[in-house]
Each structure stands twice: as structure tokens, then as C-alpha cells.
Amino acid sequence: xxxxxxxxxxxxxxxxxxxxxxxxxxxxxxxxxxxxxxxxxxxxxxxxxxxxxxxxxxxxxxxxxxxxxxxxxxxxxxxxxxxxxxxxxxxxxxxxxxxxxxxxxxxxxxxxxxxxxxxxxxxxxxxxxxxxxxxxxxxxxxxxxxxxxxxxxxxxxxxxxxxxxxxxxxxxxxxxxxxxxxxxxxxxxxxxxxxxxxxxxxxxxxxxxxxxxxxxxxxxxxxxxxxxxxxxxxxxxxxxxxxxxxxxxxxxxxxxxxxxxxxxxxxxxxxxxxxxxxxxxxxxxxxxxxxxxxxxxxxxxxxxxxxxxxxxxxxxxxxxxxxxxxxxxxxxxxxxxxxxxxxxxxxxxxxxxxxxxxxxxxxxxxxxxxxxxxxxxxxxxxxxxxxxxxxxxxxxxxxxxxxxxxxxxxxxxxxxxxxxxxxxxxxxxxxxxxxxxxxxxxxxxxxxxxxxxxxxxxxxxxxxxxxxxxxxxxxxxxxxxxxxxxxxxxxxxxxxxxxxxxxxxxxxxxxxxxxxxxxxxxxxxxxxxxxxxxxxxxxxxxxxxxxxxxxxxxxxxxxxxxxxxxxxxxxxxxxxxxxxxxxxxxxxxxxxxxxxxxxxxxxxxxxxxxxxxxxxxxxxx
Amino acid sequence: xxxxxxxxxxxxxxxxxxxxxxxxxxxxxxxxxxxxxxxxxxxxxxxxxxxxxxxxxxxxxxxxxxxxxxxxxxxxxxxxxxxxxxxxxxxxxxxxxxxxxxxxxxxxxxxxxxxxxxxxxxxxxxxxxxxxxxxxxxxxxxxxxxxxxxxxxxxxxxxxxxxxxxxxxxxxxxxxxxxxxxxxxxxxxxxxxxxxxxxxxxxxxxxxxxxxxxxxxxxxxxxxxxxxxxxxxxxx
Lengths: 621, 236
Ligand code: HEM
Ligand SMILES: [Cu+2]
Description:
- Chain A is 67% helix and 0% strand.
- Chain A is mainly α and 621 residues long.
- Residues 1-13 of chain A have low confidence and may be disordered.
- Chain A folds into 2 domains: 23-83, no CATH class; 113-603, Cytochrome C Oxidase, Chain A.
- By secondary structure, chain B is of the alpha+beta class.
- Chain B has one domain (19-61, 92-151, 168-234): Cytochrome c oxidase, subunit III, four-helix bundle (Four Helix Bundle (Hemerythrin (Met), subunit A)).
- Chain B has helices at 7-12, 18-53, 72-81, 94-119, 126-150, 168-199, 209-234, and strands at residues 3-5, 61-66, 85-88, 154-158, 161-165.
- In chain B, helix 2 (18-53) packs antiparallel against helix 6, helix 4 runs antiparallel to helix 5 (126-150) and helix 6 (168-199) runs antiparallel to helix 7 (209-234).
- Chains A and B meet through helix 12, helix 13, helix 14 and strand 1 of A and strand 1, helix 1, helix 2, strand 5 and helix 6 of B.
């Protein structure tokens, strides 16, 4: 195979793009599989088969082979190789990479245009949510009545763990992936992201991580939930190896993406686009990217240490060897809590944009909103041990961590009030994106307030490890972040596709999802308050009714999601044409034509005003 | 948002000045280094945390058979005839530890020297320096491998299952070593790449900024080895 590829590459040397002309997603998958097999065989031959870590080593080596092969086959390493031999890309090569005149097939390639990457992220997010959603429905179906019916406890736990991680990844990228890529460069008046090739790298590295995560499920999964608590994570089967490798891969992807977003905002702004005039979504994306840059190295380290414990006999998390599970928990939550704000902030930023546009009012106290988000990010690195209140780690620090956790509700409240303040006496235009804003406002109160309950140590001693915690974070993840993500989709869909997202189907989907969330998770709070532990596939008869209700609610959410999927597909194909600026918005992304031309701006704009001058025409006239 | 168009840009075309691009790339590399600093801090945290906790007195000791220096037959004898006992592990040799630091620092200095040569206009004299820096980095890597091999692995019998294990100390040292090794390989790749690029004319006295980016990273790796050596010799 290699020889034919080299041969054709030779022929087309004169054409722009060179070797990359032959590479795409499919060659990536093929090379990935081939390399995985090669690495597997080499591993079988060279590794010590009698060693305790043999299976884990072999699994990891195979997974690494897949990632490297996929990178090679899609062309992620071509630029590196060319750099090494001193043959930089020409302008024509760059234009080829950006997908110039390539048509639809550019979506299957290592394309650097930020708008293509944005669309690819939409698709990848939907795949992740779909896979996680199927697992969620399996879980809820199992929990509909007491006793075991459909899956055995091992498989149930594997479903729980992989569901959790799929959804965490899906939500990390749900807003930042599609929209920090598609709209942020246009919003700041740039022609692309700061590092277009790194942009493609982050997307395709994420894609490479997905088969690892699903593969983990196929080889037995893992039993301790997405938090991979030691020492269970030390004893788990090889599913844990692929799981850890998936996260390491994902950490690389987000780090690259985060650096790119920050550099784009700080160095690519057009004339007059001062930091004070940045649209709020740009601020939110940048703060989240910075926080991710802090958080994800811990994720990489905790998973790597877990892996070498399993493969090479180190004792980081094994008490018998002098290690400790507390180390695992500390490293994990040093990542884990900041990460929830990495997830939340872009969604809030998008909801801010929607709110000002559809209230036809300037954003309420722009500076407070930016400061609130920055304070959230700053404080979020100081609260991690609220996930460890009941573990016995450093009891004397309980008080301080309780304090910081309760303090974080202040900037949270401030950001929330800025949304309410923008709505207040606004001239509200109830189009589809606005529905999701109101849904968020309701759900986030429930999610946030129950968070404050949990930060109270005496309460947490009762609630930790129960379905109450699960209900809390589903109110923030599903009720708030996913609502923000769907709102963002409805809002920017016309820019991406040139068409409206179907309002009628969209509203049906909203009501189903909104009602479904209340039914599912309010009932789940009750299960938790009555003491139902999380991560159990069967339960006592006393939890019967609330679980049944939760399952019914989950099916309602599923119906809502399917309607939304239908709306996306039909609208993308044949929705009502929207024109370039359907919401009469004033930020830059709406002032360029739709579809957005390859380099966004023929002539770079010069900014002379704040982004949110809505309503001032009326006042002035 | 009200906008005006600006003619200057139209005549400029879509090309940005090298200064603008360099500024952007510098910020990029600093951000990557920041991420690397966090990663490194997580390892430092791990080291100090394990030392501080000293679970079951196992920081540098372990209930096991000491296998160090034995062949398979001798090891089998040991397992069959002796009961496991608490083995104490010696810390890694301070001399070797600091030797690695010295070698990495030298390689960073070579790159810095090469950079100043290029900036003074003699690009070609970078070529040997880049190769040399890469080789020196790899030498440091070899020393690091020697150090990692010196960290003993024990054979423990625990709950009827037999395992090879490292002490907490050994584990943390291996983590530092492994991370450094990965960085040194990357540095060697970059050093060789820069030299190749210079000989091909892709790096010149006018286009030298990539060398500076690599130097930033190289110096940071050198600093990290110094920090590692200080911590691991002061706390062990
Ligand atoms: C006012 C703000 C919030 C406070 C005070 C708060 C507090 C807490 C506390 C104390 C816990 C630990 C409960 C336990 O395990 O016993 C917790 C769990 C959790 N929270 Fe929040 N929270 C807040 C907002 C959020 C937000 C905005 C998100 C996500 C966007 C979130 C996601 C989570 C997750 C994922 C967990 C559970 C992790 C697990 O154990 O699997 N929280 N929260
Ligand atoms: Cu938290």
C-alpha cells in the first residue's frame, strides 16, 4: 500500500497539497487499523508474556498504534515531516489545506479552514451525544424497576462509566468545538484561527479518541465510573487501559485547541477590536480555554500514572506499595472541578449573545459579566476537595474548602444576574434560541442551588454517593450546558447552513426536553434524598416509584432529542433560507455573507463601537 | 457593532508581516510551555505527596524480596527459601542526578549559542550547533535511562499473588525520568530539524525566529531538570 501511495504522490508533486491530496478520513482509519495490528503483533512478540502487566501493556501498545496510524493516515504528521526536512508549505499548499474549491469532500479531510472544522465539530458532538445517549437509555431502562433485567451488573457499571466520559467529552466540545471555531475568528475580525493546522489536529485527535473509548466498552469496560477511583481502577480489566488512553489523547486535543483559541483572540483581532469591545462569547471561550489549559494536564497525569501502575508495577495509587488512592482523587479533582467550568462557560457565553440579541438590549453590565466569568475560573481551581469531603482526606481542610465552594456561588450568581438583567424590560423576541435561554434560567437555579447544599459538609455526608449528586450535576450538565449548546446551535445555525433551524420542530423539541429534564431529575433528587446510592443496577423496592418516573422522563428527553435531530437534518437540507443576518445582530459574524467566504473578509473591518448597541437607535431618534 | 472599511488592508493583500506571525507563535509556545509546567507541577505534587503521606511506611521501603543484581535462578532460590522482609531502597545517586542536569543545561546553552550566531548573521554556523545540541540531549537521555534502570524493582507476595513492584519513591522517580526522556527525544528532533532547515535555507539570518521558539522550550526543559534535581536531592 505504501508503495502505491508514494508512487502517486510522486506524480502529483507539482499540484498543491502534494501528498495530502491522497489522505482523508478513510485512509486515516485504514492506516490506524493497520498500525494497531502491527503494534499488537510487535507487542505480542517482544513483551514479557509472563509479566503481570502483559495484557495492559499489549492493550495500550495497540491503542497507541491506532492513534499514530490514524494521525499518519489522515495527514496530521505530514506538516511535521515537511518542517523537519525544511520544505515548508507554499501558499498554494495552504489554500489546498484550507479546502479551496474542494467541495463537500473537504469535510472528510484534514482541512484547516475554521468553518469546516466548526461543522466537523458539530457532527462529532452529535455522534458523542448519540453514543452517550444510547447508553443513558440503556441505564434508565435497566433502572425502570427494581431487580436486574437487561444487563448484568458488570455491564451496567461499564455503561455508567463510558456514558459518563462520553458525555463529559461531548459537553466539553459541544459549544467550544463548533462555535469557538466557527464564529470566534469572524467575531474578532480574523481570516482564520491563529494556527489553522493545529485546529485540524485538535479535531482529528478528538476523533481518534472516540474508538478508544468505545473500544474500552467492547473489551469489558470499567466498573468504577468516570472518576476511575483507585484502587478499583488499578484492578479493573483492560477496558481501563483504553479508557485512560482515550483521555490522554483527548487531553492533547483540548490543549491544542485551547492554545489556538487564546492565540486567536489575543493576536488576531482586527483594528479597533479592543478587549473591551470583544463580544462576550469570545471572552467566555477564551477564559474557558485558559482554564482548560490548567485543568487537562492533571487529567493527562492522573491517567498516565494509572496506566503505568497497571503496566509497569509502579505504586502511585497502591497502598501496599507505598502509594495512595488519595493521590488519585486529588489529581483527578484538581482537573475535575475546573473542568465543569470549562464546560459551563462557553455555554453561558453563547446564552449571553442570544439574550442581548433577542432582548434588543445591550448586555447588562458587560464588565461585571466578564469579571464574573474570570472570577469563576479563578475560584474554580480552589474548590476541588469538595468532591472528597467523605473520603477522610485532610479533614481539617474541610472548612476552607466548604468556604471556597460556597464563595463560588457569588460569581455564579453575578453571571446569572447579568442574564436576568439583560432580559429585564427588554423587548423580547421569542424565537427558538430564546426558548433555550429561559430553559437554562430555570434549570440552572435548580442545579446551582443544589450545588450549594452539597458544599455543606454535614449535608454532603448524607448526600455524597447518592442519586442526589447525580441529579445535581445533570441539572447543570443537561439542563444548563446542553440547553446552552442547543440554543447556540439554533442561534448560529443560519450562519452555518444559510437556513433557519425549523422553529416548529425546534419548539416541540424544547418542550419535550424541558419537561423531560424536570420529570427525570426532580424524581432523581427524591431517590437521592431517600438514600438511593448511585452506580447500582438494582435497588430496594422503596425507590421504585421515583425511578419509574425518572425513566419515563428520560424517554421524554429522548423524544425531544430525536425531534431535534429531525429538525437539524430537514433544516440543513431544505429549511427556510435565512439570509446573512436573520436576527438583525450586530456582531461581526453576522455582517459577512452567508455562506461565509473562504477567508471570511475581503477587506478587514475596523471596529468603532461596542458590540451591543441594540435599542440605541430608538433612544437616539 | 459599527464598522468601517479600511483601504490600507486591501492593498496589503492577505499576507501578514513576519513580526505579527512571530508574535503569535511566541504566545503559542508560551502557552504550550504553560501547559507543560502544569504537567510537571502535577508530577512534583505527586512526588511530595507520596513522600508526605508515606503510606504504610512505604515511601522508600517495601515488604518484598530484593531482586537487584540477581539472575533468574538466584531469584527463584530467594523466593523459595526466604520469607519476604522489609527492604529499604537507596535514593538514586546524587552525582548522576546532577550530571543529567549539567548535560541538559549544556545542550540548552548550545541552542542558545546557535541562536545568537544566527541573529548575528552567520546562519550556517548554527548547523553544527543544532546537531550537537541534539546529540547532547540524547546523551542526557542515555544517562536518564541508566538512572531509571538503577531504580530497583521488587518482588512482592501479596494476598497469594506475586507482583513486581516499585516503591512509591521509585515510582515517582520513574515518572520524572519518563517525562524527561520524552522531552529529550522531542528536543533532539527539534534540534536536528532546525539544523536540517538551516542547511536547506529554510532558516536564515532573516528567518530565525523558530530557533528562538525552540530555545524557549529547551530552556524550560533545562529548568525543569534543575527543579527536579533540587527537589529529589532535598527531599528523599
Ligand atoms: C454553585 C455552583 C456549584 C456548587 C456549589 C457545586 C457543588 C458541588 C459539590 C459540593 C459536589 C460534590 C458532591 C458529592 O460528590 O458529594 C458537586 C458535584 C458535582 N458537580 Fe457541582 N456545584 C456547582 C455547580 C456545578 C456546575 C456548574 C457543574 C457543571 C457544569 C457541576 C458539576 C458537578 C459534577 C459533575 C459533580 C459530580 C462529580 C461526580 O461525583 O461524579 N457543578 N457539586
Ligand atoms: Cu466540583
